[in-house]
Task: structure prediction
Amino acid sequence: MIALEIKGTKNIMNALLISGQFDSFLVEEAVITTFNTFHIDGHLVKEFYNSEELEEFEKIQKSSVFSCWNDIRPVCFQLIKGKKTPVSFKVVLHATPQLIEKIAANPECGVAANLIRSLVLNIRYDNGKVTCITGSAFTTFIMDKSIDRLWDAYVRQLLSSFGLDFEEI
Result:
């Protein structure tokens, strides 16, 4: 687990809310505080979809647990846009099952993909600062920390590829 403070709030806000650079991630939760506090639960409500829609949805993202950030992003953007900055926000993103499999397939990884419940990226804005915190969860107790190192390296590389400057805190 690492905590990274992003330099240039405007750049991360653009990457997160406008450019769609995080669109491939799944969203567990978004909490945005402006004139009210808005809570978005990213868990899919399967009853909303008919069986064909749900089947197609699972083919596309191989997950029927969370919504894609691509689908939630416009709602969050509407809540945040305007002349005033939000008081705070928190977005909890998860790696897709495909990304988890890709990272677990790395020869340096000592953890099987089926033992990885989630690889998480928490993005928090508070007091004018944006912090990204990584995390992982497993289906059983695991002593091996190789997946954590690989996930942390992936996030650092991802943020760099988006042109975001950061420092570890």
